[in-house]
UniProtKB/TrEMBL annotation:
Name listed for the protein in its UniProt record: Putative membrane protein
Source organism of the structure: Modestobacter versicolor
Transmembrane segments: 26-48, 54-75, 96-117
Subcellular location: Cell membrane
Pfam families: DUF202
UniProt keyword Cell membrane present: yes
Gene Ontology, cellular component aspect: plasma membrane
Domain of life of the source: Bacteria
UniProt KW keywords: Cell membrane, Membrane, Transmembrane, Transmembrane helix
Membrane-topology annotation of the record: Multi-pass membrane protein
KW Cell membrane (keyword) present: yes
PANTHER family for this protein: DUF202 DOMAIN-CONTAINING PROTEIN (PTHR34187:SF2), FGR18P (PTHR34187)
Main location: membrane
Length: 122
């Protein structure tokens, strides 16, 4: 008797392009986080008083916290997406992008109000 059984198929790997795209997305989140942190540092150095006493530091803290939150949210998203890619499942939907967008919008509105107060007083 001859054995004509086919060899087992090689293990299936996820398409590496998806993992690399996921990594690029993480890097985009990190660039955004770094920009928020840089903005927070710049506010502290160049605009200590903005419209109201301690206006600059308040916005700086918001930007720094936003940078931290964005970095952590981006990493969480990366890990969840990488697990879904490896399991060949749909990417999980989540509210992270909406939260980060909302946080940036709140900081921009606060900064806008402080700039208007500074201009009206000045």
């Amino acid at each position: 008797m001859s054995s004509s059984a086919a060899p087992p198929p090689p293990p299936r790997h996820p398409d590496y392009r998806f993992s690399l795209a996921n990594e690029r997305t993480l890097l985009a989140w990190l660039r955004t986080a770094l920009a928020l942190v840089a903005g927070g540092v710049a506010m502290t150095q160049f605009v200590p008083e903005l419209g109201v006493p301690a206006g600059g530091p308040v916005v700086s803290v918001g930007l720094l916290l936003g940078g931290l939150g964005t970095a952590l949210a981006g990493y969480r998203r990366y890990v969840r997406n990488e697990a879904a890619i490896a399991a060949d499942e749909p990417l999980p939907a989540g509210p992270l992008a909406g939260w980060v967008t909302g946080l940036v919008a709140v900081v921009v509105v606060a900064l806008l109000v402080l700039v208007v107060v500074e201009v009206v007083r000045g």
